[in-house]
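Quick start: read one record
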Amino acid sequence: LLFYVAFVVFFIVAAKHSEALTGSVIFLVASCAIGQTFTERSSLLVSPIQKCIFATFFGICLNTFFCWVALHFKVNYAYSHIAFYLCEILVFRKRLLSFGNRVSDIFQSHLSIGQMTILLHAVLMLVYQLVPGYNFDDIIGHLYVPKVVDLLGKYSFSPTYSSAFNTAIAPIGSYSSVYLLSGEYGVRLLNVALFYLCFFAIEDFARK
């Protein structure tokens, strides 16, 4: 029943927000591809799930920094960002496929009660996040810079705006990039994905 509900919700999201889903997935997969290159040999991470999640976050950090550098120049367009991420996926495709197979084997064997609870909560939260009026006050504070970048192709890092808007590197870089790929709903889906990656990592660590 859980998987049936999850599939129905995913199908609805894919049908109505296919661009947002595609953009956020490309960003996360590319981040995992480049991140696992640096984390696959880590002895601190025991399980494949932990390695996958840590690799994704490490890759997001790298791509966020790359994007932050790019924001200083008028080179920020949807086609330039998607080309960059597709290159990452292409270059690291063999390691990414091998890595993905190891993780998928674990989920295909069985899901723990904690993982099923997280998955069900994620499905419910996904519906909440995609309603335009919900969570708008928090999202709008992070979308100022991405919107400027979308309009102008760059961002002027003037101290004039530092007190009025969120100028942290992480929201600027990752949100601006995903916004260029898939708009506001891509950013909302990225938020959901990051939260539940953390939850899966905590559950896996506690269960081990």
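The chain has a mean pLDDT of 79.
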